[in-house]
Amino acid sequence: MLYVRSRWPTLRHGLGHDLGRFKQPPDHLGEPECEIWDDVIRDFKGSRASYFVLLSGLEAHMRARQARETIDDEGMTIIGRDGQPKAHPLCTVERDARRAFQQTFRSLGIKL
User: Fold this and answer.
1) End-to-end CA separation in angstroms for the chain
2) Beta bridge partners of 2
3) Phi then psi for 63, rounded to 5 degrees?
4) CB neighbour list of residue 85: distance below 8 Å, 6 or more residues apart
């Protein structure tokens, strides 16, 4: 069923019999994200589309975590073309991915 509140349509499905496949975390998520998936899914009741929004948020979390791990290994600064230190480019990736994770969970009504 398609429900339109504004000009952007939203899928409105209850939990159906075919949503059982969402109980297991996707294979490409890292271990910390799988743990979050399991914690959230335990009490999560949402539409089919909301599971994909949740997945998108956890992918952003994984991207932020991977960026943080690389920054921890390489340092917060790198030497630029002009020989001067500058912020590591992954600092921006981490910030943006963390913000996407938080906004996604906020949109699903999940408290962090």
Assistant:
1) 30
2) 11
3) -65, -45
4) 77, 78, 79
Task: Find where tokens 């929004």 sit.
Answer: 53
Q: Tens digit of pLDDT per residue, the chain (112 long)? A: 444 444 334 444 343 445 566 788 999 999 999 999 999 998 888 888 999 999 999 999 999 999 999 999 999 999 999 999 999 999 999 999 999 999 999 999 988 7
Cβ distance 53 to 104 under 8 Å?
A: yes
- In this structure, what token pair is assigned to residue 81? 């073309």
Angle between helices 90-107 and 48-74 (to 10 degrees): 150
φ/ψ (deg, to 5) at 103 = -65, -40
In a 13 Å sphere around the CA of 33, the CA atoms on its Cβ side amount to: 20
Q: Is the dihedral of CA 93, 91, 102, 69 positive or negative?
A: positive
Task: Give the chain's length.
Answer: 112
- Which token pair is 45? 């009741």
Predicted TM-score (pTM) of the model is 0.77
